[in-house]
Amino acid sequence: SAPGRFADYFVICGLDTETGLEPDELSGENFDQTPLRRTFKSKVLARYPENVEWNPFDQDAVGMLCMPKGLAFKTQADSREPQFHSFIITREDGSRTFGFSLTFFEEVTSKQICSAMQTLYHMHNAEYDILHTPPTNDRDSCSSTGDCNGTSISKLQRFNSYDISRDTLYVSKCICLITPMSFMKACKKVLEQLHQAVTSPQPPPLPLESYIYNILYEVPLPPAGRSLKFSGVYGPIICQRPSTNELPLFDFPVKEVFELLGVENVVQLFTCALLEFQILLYSQ
Q: Which stretches make up the UDENN domain (predicted)?
């Protein structure tokens, strides 16, 4: 039986520099997009511990759900704010395990990956030029009038481009906690503080490994009806577990549902739930 730890795994997903840039087949073919707008296959780079007997690690499911859109590349011209999301893995016996992921961008230091991205852009631009070059007669008329669609197309195809000599390439990376209970706010704070420690110019008070070890092996699940307070990298983290005679744990902000869907849609969804209709939510 599970010993009642707050978290079972700490996982890192991202770019595997050994396998390089592999198209993400699950996201569909998007070769018509510029290389910076394509999705590439992400990998589980590390997990701690390797395995726990009461919660076997599902590498395929965790890898896909940590980064459902695959790897994303950006340059210094793009916004690179971290993004947080959660997911649930439901097993065949109906048991559940919860995942919480923080995705951020870090600079690509591999020269091979940068060169591969540059090569993809050369290929993309060459194909674009072939497909959109006007016939000879049209080219002559364009040059005589000084107004040609080719000029605007050329500008468009260079938009969101990458030049290895000029641009800094960034790639998405994810840190994740796999937990037996859905303490969303506490997990979000843990991951945000770990990310802050990595990106801060000043080193954290203790080595990062000690904080990860603490959350995996020394922080217990709070008993039913009790709250728990433990130390993060930069401050305390608090979570509370409902008692057996209270509503089940729901640690997600209901306000966001109303902000995303609107009051009328939420009322309609609630009505459909009461009438036992099938409900499908579609999201990017």
A: 24-284
